[in-house]
Specification:
This protein has a domain of 48 residues. The protein has 3 helices and no strands. It is mainly alpha-helical.
Length: 72
């Protein structure tokens, strides 16, 4: 029997709720708390997409150029 999947609220809403929970954590700046809240609120697929976008923004992940085969 399959479980019914929940419809999650958008990531910004989930991150805002998580940030509210991290409000009283000591030792982290507000910027660090917001980064952690975003990572904790995201699903694994969303975390992967965030990671890909960050790496692409740095210029390290580019589409591969197709190799031309000698027979064509």
């Amino acid at each position: 029997m399959k479980r019914k999947s929940k419809v999650l609220p958008p990531l910004p809403e989930r991150a805002a709720k998580m940030l509210a929970r991290l409000k009283h954590v000591r030792g982290l700046s507000d910027d660090e708390k917001s980064v952690h809240a975003l990572g904790l609120a995201a699903t694994p697929e969303e975390r992967w997409q965030l990671n890909e976008n960050f790496i692409r923004s740095l210029g390290y992940w580019k589409p591969l150029k197709r190799k031309k085969s000698a027979t064509c």
